[in-house]
Design a protein that fits this description.
Layout: H1 3-7, H2 10-16, E1 25-27, E2 34-36, H3 37-42, H4 58-65, E3 71-74, H5 92-103, E4 109-116, E5 119-126, H6 137-153, E6 157-163, H7 171-175, H8 177-190, E7 195-203, H9 205-208, E8 217-220, H10 231-238, H11 249-254, E9 260-261, H12 267-279
Parallel strand pairs: 5-6, 6-7, 7-8, 8-9
Antiparallel strand pairs: 1-2, 3-4, 4-5
Helix pairs in contact: 6-8
Length: about 290
Amino acid sequence: MNWISNVMPPRIRSFLRRDTPENLWIKCPDSGELVFHKDLEANLFVIPGSGYHMYIAPKARLDALFDGGVYELLPTPEVPLDPLKFRDVKRYTDRIKEYRQKTGAADTIKLATGKLQGFDVVAAVQDFGFLGGSLGMAAGEAIITGMQQALDRQVPFIIFTASGGARMQEGMFSLMQMPRTTLMVQALREAKIPYLVVLTHPTTGGVTASYAMLGDIHIAEPGAVIGFAGARVIEQTIHEHLPEGFQRAEYLQAHGMVDMVVRRHDLPSVLARLCALLTGAPRPSPVLALPAIA
């Protein structure tokens, strides 16, 4: 027990502890730096000192992406909630309801359309905060809907990926979303609709094995882990020590798996420039220069 518990009267102790949010200060996982939550939020959840990119909720990401934070949310199709009647330590339906209450979202994918530095685009954001961003029927249908919207509107499609992989509670129904989304990517390509992928931390498993690595351009946020199997599983399989930074965005860029690594603050400008390059349209507003592509 500390001196406050030992010495201070109970009424004074309660006063000192009153109205103190648990997340008032955030600790950087990389440097250990403590950052005031409001300052971190204003900096798009990037630690000012270390540049570490922390988790950012879909709403905050969309607010930062679209011009003036103005966009229209697109509805996503409803799917069977529990096709396999799955249960582990709790029922799958109860787990879904818990995360819906926690995040305020129906599932892991949020769709929106609006203007990105003057360009009309459709964007999808995968939320790692909803069951680890796992790919299930709802996510697959949402991604396909977003791509179809981009096809119908003839505008670029941008997706921000973050996932631990396929959703095991849905079994083969989850795995089928990999070829289904892949077919829609091919439809975008045949229609010459730009498909831009922003890989965020982490993007792994079946998501990496499908739509996450099929973009026209692959951008990664600094430090993001991107891969199929985990590094420990790979080491145990091949019985070799992996290089430093293996599966990190910078390592993948150096080895040709990622086109560029871009800070979160620069993403709107870079994405707008890419939309201009891939559509052949003039840029409606000035943007930052692109970083060098490895």
